[in-house]
Write a structure and sequence with these properties.
Length: 456
């Protein structure tokens, strides 16, 4: 009787926290973009400015009849925007001022929602989910690139989060063919947004799908359904977006290939010009230490990113060029490192539990590592540990690749097909930031669970 009486009270409560978080996310987005709430104001962006996007909208409005633009005659050649991509559809559907003002925030908000759905499937608590969304999307390059425009990258972040969630559904304990088809469609949208950055994300997301497939095979000993799901995930994008990928390649990637006639060294210098200098990682924890951005009167960027080859000798080209800030904060970074520590070694606990004891806190299992040389080591379940180690590897590799010409790893990566025609290794920082957000969530979640366990 009591249990039945409690159901009407307890049932709505499970929606209360996510509802409050969605409301908080909307309020936070309004706060971050509050300047454009003033009537007559328009968000300034150096690349995807309102004039350029209006030209794209004009082209899309004439899409059915064939598009002709005379802007090239006055020195303003228009760019192509695909109506089939996420941002292209939004350009077509939304008033242009609303699009310019709010599309960055909309993409970041939707990306946060799907990252939250992904982490909740991992058993991560709501506090840690909020930290992950803040770290992955509302700090660093993934927020401050708003100044440069680059709406395609923001759309890609959103669709990549959708793909991540769909992969987790496809490759759950039992593979889902239907979710494999949905994932393939989401991947097609991702590739139509901005092919070069999509390929960088594709390496991480593809590795994650294979990682889950291997874990699935280890768990139940079957592989056929997982293989079909992976084939669907990989084949669907090629079927759906092949023509748009070709256009995107010609627009975003082929520029580097246009200097094939130059020496290999000149091509390498051109492709890797925007590499992230390792010593500038101080920016992750010290906002504005290297300056805020190029051309900023109150804090001009004085680092090396974007510097033209031989500038020190010739003073020709760019001394540097950066339009975003990389600050992430010491707390998410320390929590991410804490997560990696728990994933590899476990956490020492003052009250030594029984060897092999399995404990459950808020629905997630954590075990004692009896093989550890440290007495009283408490660590997450094997599934959680595997996730932590995987995302730790993604974060480390993405950061090393973002170093580009400043670290030997990118020289090996450069030899892969197509990669030698993609500019700017610093784009891997967006992959790194997403992985760091996931790790920070695992770290905070583990710390909160350990604290709750200690109070019992």
């Amino acid at each position: 009787m009591n249990e039945l009486a409690n159901n009407p009270i307890n049932e709505p409560s499970k929606y209360r926290v996510p509802g409050l978080i969605v409301i908080g996310l909307i309020a936070f987005a309004l706060l971050m973009f509050r300047q454009v709430l003033v009537p007559g104001q328009c968000l300034f962006a150096t690349d995807d400015n309102i004039g350029q996007m209006q030209l794209a909208k004009n082209g899309l409005s004439l899409w059915a009849d064939g598009y002709y633009s005379d802007t090239a005659l006055v020195g303003m050649p228009g760019g192509a925007v695909s109506i089939w991509g996420w941002n292209g559809m939004m350009v077509w559907l939304l008033p242009i001022t609303f699009y310019i003002n709010w599309m960055h925030a909309l993409n970041l908000g939707l990306a946060s929602v799907f990252l939250a759905l992904f982490l909740r499937r991992q058993g991560v608590g709501w506090a840690a989910v909020c930290l992950a969304c803040l770290t992955a999307f509302w700090l660093g390059s993934n927020l401050t690139l708003t100044y440069a425009g680059h709406i395609g990258k923001f759309g890609l972040l959103m669709v990549a989060s959708v793909v991540l969630y769909c992969i987790s559904r496809t490759m759950s304990r039992q593979s889902s063919i239907l979710w494999g088809i949905v994932t393939g469609g989401a991947l097609a949208f991702m590739l139509m947004e901005q092919l070069d950055v999509a390929l960088f994300f594709g390496f991480a997301l593809g590795a994650y799908a294979l990682f889950l497939a291997i874990r699935q095979w280890q768990a139940n000993g079957t592989w056929a359904k997982s293989a079909v799901a992976i084939i669907l995930m990989g084949g669907m994008p090629l079927l759906i977006s092949a023509s748009m990928m070709f256009v995107s390649y010609a627009t975003n990637v082929k520029g580097a290939a246009s200097i094939q006639t130059e020496s290999p060294q000149e091509k390498w210098e051109y492709v890797t010009q925007w590499s992230w200098p390792p010593d500038e990682c101080v920016d992750f924890v010290a906002p504005g230490y290297m300056g805020w951005r190029s051309g900023e009167p109150d804090g001009p960027y004085w680092g090396r990113m974007g510097r033209s080859a031989g500038w020190e000798q010739t003073q020709r080209g760019f001394m540097n060029f950066k339009l975003e800030n990389m600050y992430l904060g010491i707390i998410p970074i320390l929590l991410a490192l804490f997560a990696v520590l728990t994933g590899v070694m476990g956490v020492a606990h003052k009250n030594e539990p029984r060897r092999g004891q399995v404990e459950e806190v808020h629905g997630s299992q954590f075990t004692v590592d009896a093989s550890s040389p440290v007495s009283g080591v408490w660590c997450p379940s094997s599934d959680r540990r595997a996730e932590i180690i995987f995302w730790g590897c993604v974060a480390a590799i993405a950061l090393l690749l973002a170093f580009g010409k400043f670290f030997p790893l990118y020289a090996l990566f450069y030899k892969l097909p197509l990669v030698s025609s993609i500019r700017n290794p610093n784009k891997f920082l967006q992959v790194f930031q997403l992985a760091l957000g996931i790790l920070a969530a695992f770290g905070l979640d583990g710390m909160l669970r350990e604290s709750a366990r200690g109070k019992r």
